[in-house]
Write a structure and sequence with these properties.
Blueprint (H helix, E strand, L loop, with lengths): L2 H8 L1 E6 L6 H21 L3 H4 L3 H5 L5 H15 L2 E5 L5 H13 L2 E4 L2 E4 L7 H12 L16 E2 H17 L5
Parallel strand pairs: 1-4
Antiparallel strand pairs: 1-2, 1-5, 3-4
Helix pairs in contact: 2-5, 5-6, 6-7
Length: 175
């Protein structure tokens, strides 16, 4: 095994388990909740009381929960049951959105993986708390999403994805 291959196999990933494949009702409710979170977020960042506190969260990229949620759902198509987000990859924006959405209740931690969920309570306070919690990970002008999420090595994430996909296929949920 090459050093490059070994490094990739150990790269940290966030593993997310989706709902039953093709569950349009869940997808619709989840996307509507993301749209609500995005609208609340856009109001929250204009609040002078919070604007300065979350400046680091908005400095490089303004999180857009509608786009992030759409990208995440589209990633489910690849394996039907789950998707994985590289913690230190090129999709930094998706990691930032995931971190804040997890804090808002869009993902529930189950062991070392997350399950998509419809937030039980989504309001301005929840959105502000998520942004503030993420902003508090700042250290030397860098945010540290790894302080707020559980990850697993790439190889383990891929193995989990295969198990989840096989369970889905065995249950006959595939269309």
């Amino acid at each position: 095994m090459s050093l490059e291959h070994s490094i990739k196999e150990n790269e940290p990933y966030i593993l997310v388990e989706g709902p039953k494949w093709g569950d349009a009702e869940f997808y619709g409710k989840w996307l509507l909740a993301a749209a609500k979170a995005d609208a609340l977020w856009k109001k929250a960042i204009n609040d002078p009381g919070i604007e300065k506190q979350v400046e680091m969260v908005t400095m490089i990229y303004m999180p857009d929960f509608g786009i992030g949620a759409t990208v995440m759902i589209s990633q489910l198509e690849e394996n039907l049951a789950s998707f994985a987000i590289q913690l230190n990859g090129v999709a930094v924006e998706l990691v930032d959105e995931f971190v804040m959405m997890a804090e808002m209740g869009f993902f529930v931690l189950t062991g070392q993986r997350y399950q998509m969920a419809i937030p039980a309570q989504l309001n301005m306070d929840v959105v502000k708390r998520a942004a503030l919690k993420f902003a508090q990970t700042e250290d030397e002008d860098i945010l540290h999403p790894e302080h707020l999420v559980v990850t697993m090595p790439y190889a383990e994430a891929k193995a989990w994805q295969e198990r989840l996909r096989l369970l889905l296929l065995e249950s006959g949920s595939q269309h």
